[in-house]
């Protein structure tokens, strides 16, 4: 197991190196630089002064090596968007907000999604199944989260005055963003859970259990749900990095000063140090989540463990 | 200059970290059970709201009184009878009758940080990366009143030398910085030298290049900083600005002479000392209280203020939002003013809380949106082609169908009301006349558009100007009426400006805006100077601009600038499309003569906004009706 993990994490490091090289090359290939948004073109000497100040007058390969060397020393650079901060400081300030909202969203979405999916499957073809599957799940998948966000603000903040329109600082600030953010992963989880549960419900070993006279409760909890939830690892795992890195729509709609908006603004600003840092975060999260998903499979499914690790 | 990118943020690391920690500590208090209960109640509320339709807020609030545009809110307030004793604010200034107590004298302005970069609080540290509420810690030499007239700032008077190559400004003595030092000519001298320092890499050096003597050479590192033409005169209260030649508009340009403290500049090495409350040095009515570029900037009253222009508002709060919809924030009392787009206007008219409010309109920075052409290459190197496109713009229909009431048709580069702007002589040169456009295109060798090359029309998305809808309408008309094949291509803003500013330009035709930097025709018309923003070069035009800049007589200047506008419109290096107006709503309790109509009939806070460069600071206050409003408390707003 240890050598397997070492191998996987080593390959992840290699992937990150390649990804940063690609991104570095791509972002410099795109037209425009971080100081090109001025309405009047800057005189050449003024622009040269600014480029020199930020080290952008050096060859690209040297800029990359400088960045890599600084990274190895724990320095991610200075973001052009917020030049009074460090990239590390900016992420340390913004990401916790995204993590709190994302973390609660994951819990809410996955718990409710699994419960809804199970209830739908166990009561399939009833009005409850129709309500949960057709109405809630379909709406959750079809409605963009910013539309839901605007509706929630209009109802609960503007009309009812129960909750704030957005912002950050009080526990109640997370309620509307989490509802809007959780709707899609909850709906997705519910639909997959329902399908998976239904499939298992008619499996031979379940029918065998019934024939043996086992109680319905035991069949459901021990035979159906335990097996049905295994495929959900495939759905849930990869969604986690998406949620934990925030949503520009949710954060903009609810004025959350999280990390999500920087994924867009860093690109629009050609904020090279911030782009690279965000890419690193995403690469690490995705790589780690896939590794953890694989490990989770080996734990919950003995067949995967035997085949995977023995090889 | 103002295209919405000038908002900005900078910060005090200590303050930000403390606030971040404090905020996060609150979250674990939301237990899972609590969350479920809250979720349940919201679900119940959703169901009730769905059943009940548009339920009014349950909090007890009085309906918002509508404000009369004709009388202005200041008149309305002064007519109110009140028995309250005279109240004073933190600066000891007597508040107007009907004003709220000093504790309510704060003003909340929203800022959208999307696409913004916040690193300074001062113009001379960075122009394009200034934070919300910047330039409040100083007094420029001159200020503007609501009629765009120059009024004294730190300077009480000024005059041009007999040979017209320098201007002398006489400062008010006794204006003190908060560190106990006096504001003198040295502060202006050191600030302007700092701006020219190549090591500083200031992003607005073009502004003084060609104006202040030796400034261009200093920025290029070819001349020492102390050789630029900004010097102390006969005493420390006299500032002399030497110019590259006779330049009449220097006092107008001096609106942007917001000084840093020379002593602080020497001590800290840059102007970033003003983003830290502990090191902020101010001679304005405010000082820095909090600097958190991801959440808010707060300015508190500078209790050491000794200048001549105290403000009734004690505290300013710049609420920073990373996008989102501002209307609900205004409706729920989070913010005191809102700048609305045409779409917002439609929604506001349906809102029970906003439909009674008066819409304030003004030109802000006299912004024009226009379609420029690459005049150096076919097909736009032919005058007739450019004129054909200019004659094929149905400006009135565009405004009426897409932008009304927040725009007016643009027949010239200068918006009516801007100094030396003319309209009537220009209309025949650019009016909507498809037949004439077709005949011009035929004369250029493209009858009915035959043989006209494929042209890409670049644009970038801007919600306020509805750029997407406008470029689609323009393209449809050109293709239909002229038989040409214009293809639209959207670019992100950075790419657009990089391609436009490239030498040679990489854009064949593009839709772009420009807003004034200072209130004189030399500024806006200077955009089309040879070697400037676009590649249309005309020696006669340059000559007229040089004459206009040097001429002191206003009548002669008008004649010169009229000729320049006629020449520019006739040569059609661009098709001028619309001049934008800015729409504002203010909460009913925000009152004062700063909101009343000006000589041109425009109301609301006029350019350059609620700050030290304008006299509006002195003429706005919070009325006592705030007590019955749903305005959020200061502690609620700041978290």
Short description:
The complex is a heterodimer of chains A (311) and B (639). Chain A is an all-alpha fold and 311 residues long.
Biggest interface, residues from each chain: A-B, 72 and 86 residues
Give me the count of strands of chain A. 0
Helix content of chain A: over 70%
> Count of helices of chain A?
14
Query: How big is the Rg of chain A?
Result: 24 Å
Specify the oligomeric state. heterodimer
User: What separation lies between the terminal Cα atoms of chain B?
Assistant: 33 Å
Could you say which overall geometry of chain B the principal axes of the C-alpha atoms support? globular
Percent helix among the residues of chain B? 25-40%
Provide the β-strand percentage band of chain B: 15-25%
> What structural class do the secondary elements of chain B suggest?
alpha+beta
Q: Give the overall shape of chain A.
A: flat
Main sheet record of chain A? none
Indicate the proportion of strand residues of chain A: under 5%
What would you report as the Rg of chain B, rounded to the nearest angstrom?
26 Å
Measured distance between first and last alpha carbons of chain A: 11 Å
Looking across the biggest beta sheet of chain B, what order are the strands in?
A: 14-18-13-17-15-16
Q: Could you say which structural class the secondary elements and strand pairing of chain A correspond to?
A: mainly alpha
Main sheet of chain B, how many strands, which sense, barrel?
A: 6 strands, mixed
Question: Regions of chain A with pLDDT < 50 over 5+ consecutive residues?
Answer: none
Kindly describe this structure:
- The complex is a heterodimer of chains A (311) and B (639).
- With 311 residues, chain A is mostly helical.
- In chain A, 75% of the residues lie in helices and 0% in strands.
- In chain A, helix 4 runs antiparallel to helix 5, helix 5 packs across helix 7 and helix 7 packs across helix 9.
- By secondary structure, chain B is an alpha+beta fold.
- In chain B, the strands form six sheets. In chain B, strands 14-18-13-17-15-16 form a six-stranded mixed beta sheet, with helices on both faces.
- In chain B, a hairpin with a 5-residue loop joins strand 6 and strand 7.
- The longest helix of chain B is centred in the N-terminal third of the chain and has 21 residues.
- Chain B is globular, with a radius of gyration of 26 Å.
- Classes of the chains: A mainly alpha (311), B alpha+beta (639).
- At the A-B interface, helix 2, helix 4, helix 6, helix 7 and helix 11 of A face helix 1, helix 2, helix 8 and helix 15 of B.
């Amino acid at each position: 197991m240890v050598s397997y993990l070492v191998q996987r994490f080593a390959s992840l490091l290699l992937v990150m190196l390649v990804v940063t090289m690609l991104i570095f090359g791509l972002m410099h290939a795109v037209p425009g630089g971080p100081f090109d948004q001025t309405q009047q073109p800057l005189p050449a000497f003024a622009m040269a002064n600014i480029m020199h100040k930020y080290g952008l007058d050096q060859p690209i390969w040297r800029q990359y090596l400088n960045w890599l060397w600084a990274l190895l020393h724990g320095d991610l650079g200075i973001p052009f968007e917020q030049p009074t901060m460090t990239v590390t400081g900016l992420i340390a300030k913004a990401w916790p907000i995204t993590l709190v909202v994302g973390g609660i969203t994951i819990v809410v979405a996955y718990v409710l999604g699994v419960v809804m999916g199970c209830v739908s499957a166990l009561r399939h073809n009833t009005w409850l199944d129709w309500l949960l599957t057709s109405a809630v799940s379909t709406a959750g998948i079809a409605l963009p989260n910013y539309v839901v966000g605007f509706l929630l603000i209009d109802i609960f903040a503007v009309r009812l005055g129960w909750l704030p329109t957005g912002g950050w600082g009080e526990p109640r600030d997370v309620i509307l963003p989490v509802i809007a953010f959780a709707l899609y992963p909850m709906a997705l989880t519910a639909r997959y859970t329902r399908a998976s549960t239904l499939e298992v419900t008619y499996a031979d070993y379940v029918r065998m259990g019934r024939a043996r006279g086992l109680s319905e409760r035991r069949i459901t909890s021990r035979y159906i749900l335990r097996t049905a939830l295994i495929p959900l690892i495939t759905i849930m795992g990869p969604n986690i990095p998406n949620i934990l890195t925030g949503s520009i729509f949710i954060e903009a709609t609810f004025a959350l000063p999280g990390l999500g908006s920087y994924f867009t603004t860093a690109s629009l600003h050609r904020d090279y140090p911030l782009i690279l840092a965000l890419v690193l975060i995403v690469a690490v999260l995705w790589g780690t989540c896939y590794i953890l998903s694989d490990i989770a499979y080996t734990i919950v499914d003995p067949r995967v463990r035997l085949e995977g690790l023995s090889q | 200059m103002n295209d919405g990118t000038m908002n900005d943020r900078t910060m005090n690391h200590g303050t930000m970290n403390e606030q971040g920690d404090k905020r996060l500590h609150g979250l674990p208090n939301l237990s899972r059970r609590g969350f479920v209960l809250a979720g349940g109640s919201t679900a119940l509320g959703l169901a009730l709201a769905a059943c009940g339709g548009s339920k009014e807020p349950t909090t007890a609030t009085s309906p918002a009184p509508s404000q009369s545009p004709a009388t202005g809110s200041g008149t309305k307030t002064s007519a109110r009878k009140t028995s309250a004793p005279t109240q004073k604010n933190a600066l000891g200034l007597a508040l107007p009758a009907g004003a709220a107590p000093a504790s309510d004298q704060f003003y909340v302005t929203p800022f959208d940080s999307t696409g913004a970069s916040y690193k300074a609080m001062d113009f001379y540290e960075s122009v394009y990366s200034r934070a919300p509420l910047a330039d409040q810690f100083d007094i420029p030499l001159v200020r503007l009143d609501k009629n765009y007239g120059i009024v004294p700032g730190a300077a009480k008077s000024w005059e041009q030398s007999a040979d017209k190559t320098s201007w002398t400004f006489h400062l008010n003595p006794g204006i003190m910085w908060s560190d106990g030092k006096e504001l003198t000519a040295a502060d202006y001298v050191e600030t302007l030298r700092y701006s020219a320092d190549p090591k500083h890499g200031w992003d607005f050096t073009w502004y003084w290049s060609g104006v202040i003597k030796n400034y261009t050479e200093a920025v290029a590192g070819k001349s020492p900083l102390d050789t630029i033409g900004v010097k102390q005169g006969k005493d420390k209260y006299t500032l002399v600005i030497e110019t590259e030649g006779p330049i009449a508009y220097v006092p107008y340009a001096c609106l942007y002479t917001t000084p840093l403290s020379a002593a602080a500049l020497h001590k800290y090495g840059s102007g970033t000392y003003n983003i830290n409350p502990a090191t902020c040095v101010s001679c304005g009515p405010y000082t820095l209280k909090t600097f958190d570029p991801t959440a808010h900037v707060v300015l508190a009253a500078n209790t050491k203020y000794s200048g001549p222009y105290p403000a009734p508002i004690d505290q300013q709060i710049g609420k920073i939002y990373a996008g989102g919809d501002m209307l609900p924030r205004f409706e729920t009392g989070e913010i005191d003013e809102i700048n609305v787009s045409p779409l917002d206007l439609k929604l506001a008219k349906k809102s029970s809380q906003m439909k009674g409010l008066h819409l304030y309109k003004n030109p802000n920075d006299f912004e024009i949106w226009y379609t420029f052409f690459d005049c150096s290459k076919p097909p736009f190197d032919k005058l007739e082609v450019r004129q054909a496109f200019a004659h094929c713009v149905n400006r009135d229909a565009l405004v009426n169908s897409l932008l009304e009431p927040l725009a007016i048709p643009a027949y010239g580069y200068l918006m009516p009301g801007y100094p030396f702007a003319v309209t009537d002589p220009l209309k025949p040169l650019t009016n909507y006349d498809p037949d004439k456009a077709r005949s011009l295109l035929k004369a250029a060798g493209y009858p009915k558009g035959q043989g006209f090359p494929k042209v890409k029309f670049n644009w970038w998305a801007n919600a306020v100007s509805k750029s997407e809808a406008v470029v689609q309408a323009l393209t449809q008309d050109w293709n239909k009426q002229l038989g040409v094949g214009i293809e639209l291509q959207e670019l992100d803003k950075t790419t657009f400006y990089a391609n436009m500013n490239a030498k040679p330009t990489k854009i064949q035709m593009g839709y772009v805006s420009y807003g004034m930097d200072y209130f004189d025709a030399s500024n806006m018309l200077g955009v089309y100077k040879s070697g400037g923003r676009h590649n249309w070069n005309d020696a006669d035009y340059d000559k007229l601009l040089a004459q206009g800049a040097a001429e002191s007589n206003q009548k002669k200047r008008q004649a010169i600038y009229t000729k320049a506008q006629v020449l520019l419109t006739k040569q059609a290096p661009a098709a001028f499309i619309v001049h934008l107006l800015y729409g504002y709503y203010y909460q009913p309790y925000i009152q004062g003569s700063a909101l009343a109509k000006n000589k041109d009939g425009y109301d609301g806070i006029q350019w350059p906004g609620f700050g030290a460069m304008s006299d509006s600071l002195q003429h706005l206050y919070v009325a006592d009706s705030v007590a019955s409003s749903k305005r959020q408390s200061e502690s609620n707003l700041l978290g």
